[in-house]
# Entry
Amino acid sequence: MRFQWVHRSVLPGFGLTMGMTVVYLSMIVLIPLAALFLRLRGMNLHDFWRTVTDPNVLAALQLTFGASLAAALLNAVFGFVVAWVLTRYTFPGRWLLDAMVDLPFALPTAVSGIVLTALYTKDGWIGRFLPFEISYTNWGIIVAMVFIGLPFVVRTLQPALLAMEKELEEVSASLGANRLQTFWLVIFPTVRPALVTGFALAFARALGEYGSVVFISGNQLGKTAVVSKLIMVKLDQYQYQEAIAIAFLMLVTSFALLLLINLSQVWANRRFLK
# Structure
């Protein structure tokens, strides 16, 4: 008996499209990653460990992952609110509000960094009303990461909210459930996979952000410098091996965290289906 690896489709072209997919992913993803591994071979284990355990590197990693996590959590909460308003209510100017969600996609990150820095300084339009300074601090980094990550959560949640049947909420209310119970037992389990996906996308986007963060942060090594800024500093100082080592550590750590998020999502979905 001949074993068929691929289910045949009515439309032909699997071989051509599969080949194009492999070539494209190889040129964009696999070859650059392979080059990173090959360049890392020139560094021995002692030098690699000394580089990644440097106090400035550890401080940058802690700041980058901590700020990215905080920004992703904020986006998960407020992104859900924005997506809910855009999908469930009709009001004047909704199209404008919906278009504003995509602004971080179209706006260059350097421009957004300059604008956010100007707004949140002590004399800025927003910063003058705040009890503490945002620009040039770790809070500014979180603000920049929230700005660039919000569209990922909103655009991921909107299709899930639109696909959810409103009759489920009506049935829940008719059975005596209050609004909080309806949200927690009916709405949230339905959109949870999309919410986790949006959270993971916003988290991953914040990890690699440079343009907006570099303007609003203080860029002080060991204090307000993120990993991307630290890598640029190493490159400017012609310390290519150390920059590659930091990038490799960032790649492995980010991949492990994203894999953990995806596995937890799969586990939660299977448990919910049971």
Q: What stands out?
A: The chain has twelve helices and no strands. The chain has a mean pLDDT of 86. The two ends are 36 Å apart (CA to CA). The longest helix spans residues 55-88.
